[in-house]
Structure formats: C-alpha cells, structure tokens
Amino acid sequence: MKIMPAIEDTSAKLGVDPTSNAILIRGASKKYRVYYEKSENIKYLIINLLKGKADRHRDVWALRDVSLSIRRGETVGIIGENGSGKSTLLKLLCKILLPDTGTIDVRGRIATLLELGSGFSMEISGRKNIFMNASILGLSRKEARERLGEIIDFSELGDYINAPIKTYSSGMLVRLGFAVAINVEADVFLIDEILAVGDERFQRKCLERIRDMQRRQRTIVLVSHNVATIEEFCSRAILLHEGRIIADGEPGRSIDEYRKLQASRSGAQADA
Ligand SMILES: Nc1ncnc2c1ncn2[C@@H]1O[C@H](COP(=O)(O)OP(=O)(O)OP(=O)(O)O)[C@@H](O)[C@H]1O
Ligand SMILES: [Mg+2]
Q1: Is residue 88 in contact with ligand 1, taking CB distance under 6 Å?
Q2: Number of the ligand 1 atom closest to the C-alpha atom of 84
Q3: Which three-class secondary structure state does DSSP give residue 129?
Q4: pLDDT attached to residue 9
Q5: Which residue's CA is the closest to the ligand 1 atom numbered 26?
C-alpha cells in the first residue's frame, strides 16, 4: 500500500471545471523496455543486425493513447484480460510511473492499494509501517497516534501488529494496507484487485467501507476480474484491451463486451 501526497492541481491550466474532474488523462501512452535474456541475445542481435539495428531490447506498449476523465465522487471499474494495461494505468495515476506521451492529472490526495506490500517495508512491524506511511502522507506523529487505534482495530491483526510484516500472510498484508488506506482521508482511492486476497468476511467489511467512501463523494478506481463486484459497486466500467480503451460506460455493457472478447478468444483457441 502506498499513499501519495497531494499533487499539483493543473485543471485550471487545462481549462476544465476544477470542481467536477478528479482525474483527467489525455492521450497517455506507456511503454516498457524489455531486454533480451543472454541466450536470446545472440539470436536477436543477428536478426537486428540483418535489419540494420543493434537493439538488445524490444518495447512493449502497455497503454496506447488513453484519454478519459473521471468526475469527483464517481466509482469507476477497470476490467480487461491479463496484460491489458490495468495496473499500468493505476501506476500512472499515482505517479509510480510516468507516461511516455500525454498528460495525467489527479486532484487531491491519493491512497492506493496496489501489489501486495507495495509501499511497506518488510523488515519492520505493522505498527511502525503505519507511522511510516502516515508520515509519507504528511500526517504529524500526533495525528498518526490518534488514528493508530482505529487502524489496528480495523486490521484485526492482534499481536501480529508488532511483528515484522515479512511474517504476514497475503491476507494479513491486505488487512494492514486497507486499514491504513481507509483511515487517511484521501480524495482518490485506487484499488488493484487486491481485495480478493482477504477472506470473505474481511472483503465484506472493506466493501462496506467503500460504500461509505462513496457516500462521502470520494473518487474510486477499482480494478477487478470479479465482474459481480464491478457491477455492484461501479457506476461506470472501462474495458481495456491491448492497452486501449474499447468500452467505457454503463457496467453491464462493458462487461458484455468483455465477455464477448473472452468468448472470441476461447473460440479461436478451440479452432486452433
Ligand atoms: N515492469 C514491466 N516490464 C516490462 N513489461 C511490463 C512490465 N509491467 C507490465 N508489463 C507489460 O505491460 C503490459 C500490461 O501489463 P499490466 O500489468 O498493466 O496488465 P494488467 O491488465 O494489470 O494485467 P493483470 O490482469 O494480469 O494484472 C503487459 O504486456 C505486461 O507484460
Ligand atoms: Mg494487474
């Protein structure tokens, strides 16, 4: 879990109503550079030499020309096949990654639940991690102490809160991450799949908190393969495919498109 401090408000510069948009992405693309393994190197070096290039890498475009705006208070689901660019999109939103083209603007304080343990330090206790995260966010030690009780209660980690978090199970890490994230009063909340790791009761508890955030007009972006959760919680769903947005709108419709895509893949595989 990683909490990012508030970033520059550029909505006025972009000429949009600063009260309505929490997120504005214009023409964003992101590429990863993948270097060949040594054993592959020779082969690709020869191919590249024949092509007149001397590259030892190839570029993978994880996102291609993505534009979208999300209003304050919206809950938007992101769906799509493995590798379609969902996590990359969230990492651009919280500035873990920078786009190769385009602009990304997010208004307000961002709390994220990305990969397991991201933003946490594995060697120190859950309790110390809470203080560390609180200070990254800009809370004073006093403020962090005031919220500590509630965070620990929510996490239900008991004595484990004093143990190094490398001893935690995956579900325990999620409990700590979620407990911190919901208690820091962020404006924008980015969640990548992670909820699925918690047990059923904890998942329910988290989803109730998400409802609560919705009532308080927080902006939520939720990546999930669980279309039932997307349908239940989101007012809008975006379908990513090979780094592009191919559907954006009412969740039922985007989910239908997603199912069609999956069915066409299964069909293609059956034909092969
Ligand atoms: N660090 C990286 N280096 C190289 N390529 C990467 C890296 N991270 C992601 N990619 C590639 O970028 C593309 C998008 O990956 P991303 O993790 O955003 O997908 P995703 O939609 O979150 O998938 P999943 O459903 O499996 O979580 C994939 O082709 C992936 O192989
Ligand atoms: Mg992902």
Answers
A1: yes
A2: 21
A3: helix
A4: 43
A5: 82
C-alpha 102 – ligand 2 centre gap (Å): 21
Question: What is the structure's pLDDT at 42?
Answer: 72
Distance between Cα 192 and ligand 2 center (Å): 7
Q: How does DSSP assign 184-238, residue by residue?
A: S--SEEEEESGGGGS-HHHHHHHHHHHHHHHHTT-EEEEE-S-HHHHHHH-SEEE
pLDDT tens profile 3-16: 444 434 444 444 44
Same domain, 139 and 202: no
pLDDT at 197: 80
Q: Within a domain: residue 2?
A: no
pLDDT interval class at 55 (50, 70, 90): low
pTM for the whole structure: 0.85
Residue 16 lies in a domain: no
